[in-house]
UniProtKB/TrEMBL annotation:
InterPro entries: EF-hand-dom_pair, EF_hand_dom, KIAA1045_Zf_RING, Zinc_finger_PHD-type_CS, Znf_FYVE_PHD, Znf_RING/FYVE/PHD
Name of the featured protein: PHF24 protein
Organism domain of life: Eukaryota
A single GO molecular function term of this UniProt record: zinc ion binding
UniProt entry tagged with the keyword Nucleotide-binding: no
Keywords: Metal-binding, Zinc, Zinc-finger
Presence of the UniProt keyword Disulfide bond in the record: no
Cross-referenced SUPFAM superfamilies: EF-hand, FYVE/PHD zinc finger
PANTHER family referenced in this protein's UniProt entry, alphabetically: PHD FINGER PROTEIN 24, PROTEIN KINASE C-BINDING PROTEIN 1
Region: Disordered, residue numbers: 26-95, 341-365
Gene: Phf24
Gene3D superfamilies, per database record: EF-hand, Zinc/RING finger domain, C3HC4 (zinc finger)
Species this protein is from: Cettia cetti
A GO term from the CC aspect: nucleus
Length: 400
């Protein structure tokens, strides 16, 4: 109980500081105009010519901080701090304050290969108390499918992370094979360090991308062309443009004609991680649940138990196990501790008599190329991370 009370006191203190800082900033913005009104009301000694001159000066100077600029600045601050929604955008009654995320820091030995054994299985243990309120209420807790945290749906709703239909989605998927990702794991942007985040923000600024705004196909292709030209100083080839168009379609599974900002941000975040960090550093981001799922996938493909699989089988895993599963594939009679893949012979994959996605047959060259467990992990780690968000969008489309 003492921990619970200290957390509430901390939240209240953060809310008070946030209110004080917001009021101070608002006061600074309004101070010049307020001061001018006060001086005009007290002195009233200026002539008509002076008033006209002051009006002309104000007109030439323009507004000190336009409303659009203020909103844009707030959006960039949310992007920098990894916050999806500001506390001010919620009704304050019965609301918890969303946490201030701390971005990770690169460690000295991150680029060295981690020791992830195929034979040594890892025990998956979830927390016993809600991450938010630190209270244990047994079966009413919803586990994250990526990390060890568990949550009350009521606490998530008071935090502002469950709204409208999302609450139903959590209760329906949290105890299935697909599972549900908590607000830490759902946001791929939180994997970026401060330096990497500033690099991404600079790219978005240079390409005139406004945070929080949906992107159409033309916007997405224009952005990809600009990024390619800035990086390579030449026009993007037609083949890469076609691949970018396929990625847009993967980010727009409902065919709405645009992609949501959060999906675009997740896609760009995983793309940046692939460019900047080596595969060994990405492997260190995997959680025990993700490593166990990868083990189950590899062992299911290694039929002769010789420790090797074919290139075509590795590509098959990339297109099935390490991507989003469709909602109609869910099975509600699955234990919440299950973290393995949905195999082709399972009832989930054979429903309606067809697999979720048509996999291209492997070529002879792919069949003869053997892949061991470490290489299997390195080549698929980006797709494992890209499958974290709850969104149905495919944030990193595998190459055909």
């Amino acid at each position: 109980m003492g921990v619970l009370m200290s957390r509430r006191q901390t939240v209240e203190r953060v809310q008070k500081v946030s209110l004080a800082v917001s009021a101070f900033k608002d006061g600074l913005r309004e101070q010049p105009s307020t001061r001018r009104r006060a001086e005009a009301g007290t002195t009233r000694q200026g002539t008509l010519e002076q008033e006209v001159q002051e009006g002309e000066e104000e007109a030439l100077a323009g507004p000190s901080q336009p409303e659009e600029s203020s909103a844009s600045k707030a959006a960039w601050e949310r992007l920098r701090d990894g916050r999806g929604v500001e506390p001010e955008e919620f009704e304050r009654a019965n609301r918890f304050t969303p946490p201030a995320f701390i971005r990770p820091k690169r460690q000295l030995h991150d680029d060295e290969p981690p020791d992830i054994s195929l034979e040594q299985r890892e025990q998956i243990v979830n927390d016993e108390m809600c991450e938010i309120c630190e209270v244990w209420t047994a079966e009413s807790l919803f586990p994250c499918r990526i990390c060890h945290r568990v949550y009350h749906d009521g606490c998530l709703r008071r935090m502002g992370y469950l709204q409208k239909d999302s609450a139903v989605e959590v209760t329906e998927t949290a105890h299935t094979e697909t599972g549900w990702s908590c607000y830490y794991c759902d946001n791929l942007n939180l994997l970026l360090t401060e330096e990497e985040m500033y690099s991404l923000m600079e790219t978005l600024r240079n390409c005139k991308i406004i945070p929080g705004v949906c992107l159409t196909l033309d916007d997405f292709l224009h952005y990809k062309h600009q990024v390619h030209k800035q990086q390579f100083e030449r026009t993007m080839p037609e083949a890469q443009e076609e691949q970018a168009a396929l990625q847009f379609n993967a980010l727009d599974p409902d065919k709405k004609g645009h992609i949501e900002w959060q999906d675009f941000l997740s896609h760009e975040s995983i793309q940046l991680l692939q460019k900047i960090r080596p595969q060994n550093a990405l492997l260190r981001l995997l959680t025990p649940k993700e490593r166990e799922r990868a083990r189950a996938a590899f062992l299911a493909l290694d039929q002769d138990n010789d420790g090797f699989i074919g290139e075509g089988e590795c590509r098959q895993a990339r297109h099935t196990w390490f991507r989003k599963h469709q909602k109609e594939m869910l099975s509600c009679n699955v234990s919440i501790s299950h973290v393995g893949p949905i195999s082709e012979g399972s009832p989930a994959s054979s429903r309606n008599g067809k697999s979720p996605e048509k996999i291209l047959p492997a070529t002879k060259q792919e069949e003869t190329r053997n892949i061991d467990w470490p290489r299997f992990l390195r080549e698929n780690v980006a797709y494992i991370l890209a499958a974290r968000p709850n969104s149905a969008a495919l944030h990193l489309k595998p190459l055909a």
